[in-house]
Amino acid sequence: MRVAIAHPSPVLRDVLSRAVRGVSGWSVAWTAADGAAAVARCATDPPDALLIALPGGDPDVIEAIGRVVRTSSCVVLAVASAQAPPGLVMEAIGAGAVDAVPAPAVAADGSLAGVDEIVRKLRVVASLAGAPSAERPTRVQPRPEPPARAAPLLVAIGASTGGPAALATVLGALPATLAAAVVVVQHVDQRFAGSLAAWLRGQVALPVHVAEDGGMPVEGQVTLAGTNDDMVIDRDLALHYRPPTDGSFYHPSVNAFFGSIAATWPSRGVAVLLTGIGRDGAEGLLALRERDWHTIAQDEATSVVYGMPKAAREVGAAAHVLAVGDIAPAIVRFVARAAGGQR
Predict the structure, then answer these.
(1) Are residues 84 and 162 in the same domain?
(2) Model confidence over 229-261: pLDDT tens digits?
(3) How confident is the model at residue 127 (pLDDT cuts 50, 70, 90)?
(4) How far apart are CA 178 and CA 331, in angstroms?
(5) Could you read off the pLDDT of 145-166 as tens digits, one per residue?
(6) Angle of CA points 302, 303, 307, to nearest 5°
(7) Mean pLDDT, to the nearest integer, of 293-307?
(8) Helical (H) or strand (E) element with 181
């Protein structure tokens, strides 16, 4: 894999370069001091992956990420400094970065901390960039008898690259009186899950919280997956975190989440698959459609990366393919019909 590095610090450019070269089969394509230079180099010599600093004194880094994603085939991983505002990280992922990872830092003993994590995340990026499909089909068990506890109408959403901006659009258009529980799996490192929740709170009328293990989906509330484990709904209708067991590249897995709902949730609801790289969520969405759920995939024109929703469309998982701005009204209509006893 050829990795390019855009960072204003010569020291960190060197640290990241050495980390990349230390992995067999990887090489440094080139380095740049800022986002503008990275855009220019990607146009003439696109790497497989780009590490780009946040914020690194570069006020145009979000625009640069968007331009790289739109004009080249490389996958972008943002390297966030300790001073990077949480909103900037969400904007980077919304613009097309596949994820963010903290920048290396000098530990108390003088060693560099965080380099191994960057390499680990780059391995995930390499998998996403190099394999069109590696998720195993979702295995759905027969739905059990409905439990004694009441289950609210459920709106399940999965998203990846470009997801924060799409989530802000969809969730921001939902009314505070929505008679449904909204649960979201967004591909984002657990260290930024709290930042995503805080960022969304400033744009969404519904309360937004990070899921706790054993917590229930709550009507009139948005709940976000908050760890690097898979979040699933078990037979107790509560949210639980489980170590990954499938062959997918990214966690929390949308397939695992959607598949668990198809196996356990006693009533039909709405499932939405938003912009994202790879194929995660397609098989799970299909399982929900086969359970007569109202399934929606974001369209190509409004997707930052048309990977996950495209895969859903290809397998027949999406009953409706909608522009991101049309998804919230569709959710509201379904919830209103359900409240009136119509599905």
Answers:
(1) no
(2) 999 999 999 999 999 876 666 789 999 999 999
(3) confident
(4) 10
(5) 544 457 899 999 999 999 999 9
(6) 150
(7) 96
(8) strand 181-186
Please name the residues in contact with 227: beta carbons below 8 A apart, sequence gap of 6 or more.
190, 193, 241, 252
Contact (CB, 8 A) for 223 and 251? no
What is the count of structural domains for the chain?
2
Token digits for 153? 């109408």
Are 84 and 165 in a shared domain? no
Exposure b/e, 265-290, CB count within 10 A at least 16 = b: beebbbbbbbbbbbbbbbbbbbbbbe
The rounded distance, in Å, linking the Cα atoms of 199 and 197 is 5
Gap between the Cα atoms of 52 and 33, Å rounded: 9
Same domain? 9 vs 97: yes
| Domain range for 122 | 2-130
Residue 29 falls inside a structural domain? yes
Mean predicted confidence (pLDDT) in 62-79: 92
Give the side-chain half-sphere CA count within 13 A for 54: 28
Residue 40: count of CB within 10 angstroms of its CB: 13
- Are 209 and 91 in the same domain? no
Mean pLDDT of the chain: 89
- In order of 252, 260, 279, the CA distances from 132 in angstroms are 19, 24, 7
Q: Which residues are catalytic?
A: 160, 187, 280
- For residues 69 and 76, give the distance between their C-alpha atoms in angstroms, rounded to a whole number: 7
What gap in Å lies between CA 313 and CA 297, rounded to an integer?
7
Tell me the CA distances in angstroms from 140 to 135, 247, 288, 308, one per residue in order.
15, 16, 9, 20
277 φψ region: left (φ > 0), alpha (ψ -120 to 50), beta (else): beta
Separation of alpha carbons 195 and 270, rounded Å: 26
Residue 131: pLDDT band (50, 70, 90) is very low
